[in-house]
Amino acid sequence: MNTPIVIAIDGTSASGKSTNAKLVAKALDYAYVDTGAMYRTLAWYCLKKRIDINNPKAVAAACRTWKTRLKRIDNHVRLLVDNYYPEKEIRSVEVSAAVPYIAAVPKVREWMKKLQRECTKFGNLVMEGRDIGTNIFPETEFKFYLDASLDERTRRRTSDGITENLEDRDMRDSRRSSAPLMISIGAIVINNSNMTSEQTSARILEEIHKKMESINQHKQTKD
Ligand code: DC
After folding, report:
1. pLDDT tens digits for 151-164?
2. What residue ranges define each of the domains in the chain, with the CATH number in brackets?
3. Ligand 1 pocket by Cβ (under 6 Å)
């Protein structure tokens, strides 16, 4: 059996990762994985269970004991807790504020890494996050890093009806010691401040096809 292909899409908050990762997954018929949703789900769970999010030991203990499983639903790989996917709840202001604390806990990141690598059991993937190219699938040849100006990203969040301090969030994501947000070696960086999502996803797909062709040519010359 061939090893599943993983397309890693990392980048800053509101840089269009989700929209573009979904478009790319649809075009290639790969499964889509939103790793931010996994961290958000743990943050939601901790808030619900009144676990102190500032206590890394308590958060790590919750992560060891909560009852979860991965399920592919409509081409998306979801993390269910007690058989439930808290789709709306994880987008609340409270969860958005709590999630960077959860995501900075090394034991949580270890747990997430194992889980996220397991997602290949669903086949080829488009996985978006902050450390997919650097830490989760460093071996993949398909790495992208999306960014846009702070003004444009703030405008996007506001037009989605969400008020968020993106500068603060980016700083927390980039400065944490465990798997910080970084541009992976070999990643194709796309600043899409002046691009539509159709243009961004078309650019990503073009790069993927180019890379696939060169991998195939390399294989043929070796055979
Ligand atoms: O992409 P998002 O806004 O849903 O991510 C929620 C939070 O989780 C954000 O603070 C960054 C963090 N995150 C992370 O540290 N690593 C990932 N692979 C995905 C998200």
Report:
1. 999 999 888 887 77
2. 1-30+123-223 (3.40.50.300), 35-122 (3.40.50.300)
3. 13, 35-36, 39-40, 99-100, 103, 129-131, 169, 173
